[in-house]
Amino acid sequence: MIVNVAMLTLTNQIRLVSEPMTNEAPDGTGRGGATSRREQLLSAAAELFARYGFHGVGIDDIGAAVGISGPALYRHFRGKDAMLGEMLTGISERLLHGGRARTVNTPDPITALEALVAWHVEFALTNSALITVHLRDLDSLAEPDRHRVRELQRGYVEVWVETLLQCRPDLSEHTARASAHAVLGLINSTPHSARLDPTRMSELLHRMAMNALLVERREGDEADGA
Amino acid sequence: MIVNVAMLTLTNQIRLVSEPMTNEAPDGTGRGGATSRREQLLSAAAELFARYGFHGVGIDDIGAAVGISGPALYRHFRGKDAMLGEMLTGISERLLHGGRARTVNTPDPITALEALVAWHVEFALTNSALITVHLRDLDSLAEPDRHRVRELQRGYVEVWVETLLQCRPDLSEHTARASAHAVLGLINSTPHSARLDPTRMSELLHRMAMNALLVERREGDEADGA
DNA sequence: CAATATAGTTAATGATCGTTAACGTAGCGA
DNA sequence: TCGCTACGTTAACGATCATTAACTATATTG
């Protein structure tokens, strides 16, 4: 339904002729250095989910994207839902831990905020498919995973809110949270954007984000209390 | 699959008991003043598509959301695809025409940019479901509609780029386009955001957007030429 | 009042899709 | 060499879902 039929059959042909039959890590858990089948599948699925949405991608499409066909996927994942779950919890954990790591032991709040912005910009530019899926298909997740992802997301936003409040004591917590969401939206727009080269794009997003966050506001912002 | 079963059956009951059987506009094209069935269906579908994605919503879910059941939808639309098509072309046209209308006959470029920001902020706050669908399900569109929507989107971004370039002659066109996308991402983040009350939210987004756009840059931005 | 258009209903159909079953094979350790 | 495991394959199953068919009721109109 998605890729052309030529590619479906061709990849199979190619696999039989030229592929050295996965000589990387012996175990299926992907502990080895080279990219295991699991990682190949997750990466391909992320790309497909980003473009067509979770429900718009079939198991056969995912398999075909890495040169295997259809149900072979069940040798590596418990199912299609499990792939999405692993994908989203993975990205959420990486974001949260990266954000935390970059804000502790900083000399002053502004430096911490700069580090946070730099971290998210770098992540979004490097993993744009994951960013798209994480914005798009969270509600396609089954309950145990969805709750976990939401908690991780909340924690990540909390890192932003705390850092921002230290830079801007004039803001209410509500306003700081809304500002954080807005700037994350700005940075996460990269997948849809006409991109410059990575260096310029990174600089541009960084500067826009900092200036959006550090605007001086006039009187009466935190009047709404709780 | 989406709404609970109780609601599905209950709405049917309620319809039989209390609904005055659509006494608004006589024609099905929705020319009348009150909301016609078509508009009810479009609105409900937008909400559902926004939350679950186009492929995640069934025809029965859409019908149930307005108190009719399943295939009754085909009395108003040629199919599910046609609903999405109408939804996305509609929103894209409204955005483009609104943007154009607000930038002609402005005294100076900065005022035009303010008007553009105000327009998009107002639109995004008022139609957050449509914004989400339009970011999310464009690729679920069949070919004639998709092309049209993309052209309208491109035109809208072009309005932003032209206005921004008048305010910021120091920017290259590439940089202006990337900036426009980024600010649209900032404003479009509203659906995912912990919202303040509309007035404060609107002010916050407006101020953040203007400051993101009107940052003074240091030397050497437009050096990349074409 | 008959006729017709409008807007519903339920049942059936056909395609798609996730998942499982049954089976094959290459590599490897005892 | 004998099995065991990892990793594929294709075929079948069952559910879901968009769409169509067949039918009903209400309201307007000549």
Automatic annotation (TrEMBL), chains A, B:
Cleaved signal peptide residues: none
GO molecular function, one term: transcription cis-regulatory region binding
The HTH tetR-type domain, residue ranges: 35-95
Name of this protein: Transcriptional regulator, TetR family
InterPro entries attached to this UniProt entry: Homeodomain-like_sf (IPR009057), HTH-type_TetR-like_transc_reg (IPR050109), HTH_TetR (IPR001647), KstR2_TetR_C (IPR041490), Tet_transcr_reg_TetR-rel_C_sf (IPR036271)
Organism this protein belongs to: Actinopolyspora alba
Keywords: DNA-binding
UniProt keyword DNA-binding, yes or no: yes
SUPFAM superfamilies: Homeodomain-like, Tetracyclin repressor-like, C-terminal domain
DNA-binding region coordinates: 58-77
Keyword DNA-binding: yes
